[in-house]
Design goal:
There is one protein chain. The chain is an alpha/beta fold. It has two domains: about 220 residues, nicotinate phosphoribosyltransferase (Alpha-Beta Barrel); about 180 residues, Alpha-Beta Barrel (TIM Barrel), CATH 3.20.20. It has 16 helices and 21 strands. It is globular.
């Protein structure tokens, strides 16, 4: 089951530029673009790449329908019929290299390389950025929560807080990649096989004359796996005692209550007291679920306070991830006289000056420990030397020599001439890949607060070329 994204899911200038190229007879000019970002979200020391499967399905199914053509025909731009015919027959025929989903990625590294005609490259810009800029922050936020929660299960419960129904389903997938164990979204279970879990809402309890009756009726319907919401009236004087009564009644029938849920109040204090009450009643197997605006900082604080929480349910703070990843889509090279020629964008803001050329990214692992030493961005035509000197792209005096390493190329071929050459892995395989990759980074790069900056370096040849191209551009206006 694949949801089609409209070909008109574009910014208007992504139509106007192709039209102008077509009018000029340049629509077949071949170019290469990179998708990358400039800064980690949430003050994180790493970012998780997600959304590749969505991008693959988008590119495979990209079509302009007759309804799209009719709409464009009536636009004030008055596109020529010849151009509309080009769109009618449009298919993506380009090349794509990409990071694997679940990969740990860093600023300035190409997440995707898209090569094709200028028309192809422009028409896919908005949707590709839209996908990356949503999926990656959700996966990164989820990974940060997983780092704090450790082995304690995490349930994604953000559906009703998401900006739109489609976002809810794909956010559940991104969170699952990064370590969440389940979702509240039933369609995400059907669509992706992510286990859907549910408890009860306050409306259930309010619909009965008493909380005790509500609990009894619920476990009658769900004698296995019931979780009772205990904060509707008074958590410790009503909710937990009534849950204990029902749990003991279930024991008499040979059943077991799965858990109780705390959704408001002082979660640390309430969980400690609830755990004591449950244990004293011989119900040490009943788990405590906690919800209510949890994120990595709140979870960390609760654990520091000794909260007795077994399962964390996260909703609002996964939906409200704030600003997008800020990924951009910049031309890095174009074909001139049969060869790839690097191109650059120069800005007074150094971070907006692009890294030109056909790029590759290597992760260098220490042979002895298997841990990541740094990432190395180079030109595709370069060979890796036996000894690599990693240096900060701005503070170039910060240098580190790396020898005895094993290199992993992070970009893999996905499309060649419009044909997919990459077999999409299963969601569980992506999830496992993510955990393996993250485990190969030292804790100082993964920590929640003030993480150490992971080394990402340009090759000496690439850095020299970039500096030369910057100087050449500035000399034109001296």
């Amino acid at each position: 089951m694949t949801e089609r994204i409209s070909a008109l899911h574009i910014d208007q200038y992504d139509l106007n530029m192709p039209y102008a190229w077509w009018k000029a007879g340049l629509a077949d000019r071949r170019v290469q673009f990179d998708v990358y970002f400039r800064k980690h979200p949430f003050g994180s020391g790493f970012t998780v790449f997600a959304g590749l499967e969505r991008i693959v399905h988008y590119l495979e199914n990209l079509r302009f329908t007759e309804e799209d053509i009719a709409y464009l025909r009536n636009r004030p731009e008055r596109y020529d019929e010849g151009f509309l015919d080009v769109l009618r027959g449009f298919r993506f025929r380009g090349n794509v290299d990409a990071m694997r989903e679940g990969e740990i990625v860093f600023p300035e590294e190409p997440l995707l390389k898209i090569e094709g005609t200028v028309l192809e490259a422009a028409l896919v810009e908005a949707a590709v950025l839209n996908i990356v800029n949503w999926h990656a922050p959700v996966a990164t936020k989820a990974a940060r929560m997983k780092e704090v929660a450790g082995d304690e299960p995490l349930i994604e419960m953000a559906t009703r807080r998401m900006p739109e129904v489609d976002a809810a389903v794909w956010a559940a997938r991104a969170a699952y990649i990064a370590g969440f164990d389940a979702t509240s979204n039933t369609y995400a279970d059907m669509r992706f096989g992510i286990p859907a879990k549910g408890t009860m809402g306050h409306m259930w309890i309010q619909s009965f004359d008493s909380e005790l009756e509500a609990f009894r009726r619920f476990v009658e319907a769900f004698p296995e796996g019931a979780v009772l919401l205990v904060d509707t009236y008074d958590t410790l004087r009503s909710g937990v005692p009534n849950a204990i009564t029902v749990a003991k009644e279930m024991e008499a029938r040979g059943q077991r209550l799965l858990g109780i849920r705390l959704d408001s109040g002082d979660i640390a204090y309430l969980s400690i007291q609830a755990r004591r009450m449950l244990d004293e009643a011989g119900l040490d197997y009943v788990k405590i679920f906690a919800t209510n605006n949890l994120d990595e900082d709140v979870i960390a604080s609760l654990k520091e306070q000794g909260a007795k929480v077994d399962v964390w349910g996260v909703g609002t703070m996964l939906a409200a991830v704030g600003a997008s990843l800020g990924a951009v889509y910049k031309m890095k090279a174009r074909w001139v006289n049969g060869r790839m020629q690097p191109v650059i964008k120069v800005s007074d803001n150094f971070e907006k000056t692009t890294v030109p050329g056909d790029l590759v990214v290597y992760r260098l692992y220490d042979r002895a420990t298997g841990m990541a030493r740094g990432d190395y961005i180079a030109l595709a035509a370069e060979e890796l030397p036996d000894e690599v000197e990693l240096f900060h792209p701005v503070y170039t005096h910060k240098r580190k020599r790396v020898t005895g390493y094993e290199a992993q190329a992070l970009l893999v071929p996905v499309f060649r001439d419009g044909e997919r050459v990459y077999e999409l892995p299963s969601l569980d395989a992506i999830r496992q890949y993510h955990r393996r990759q993250l485990s190969r980074f030292w804790p100082e790069y993964r920590r929640r607060l003030n993480p150490e900056e992971y080394p990402v370096s340009l090759s000496e040849r690439l850095w020299t070329m970039r500096e030369r191209m910057i100087a050449e551009q500035r000399a034109k206006f001296a």
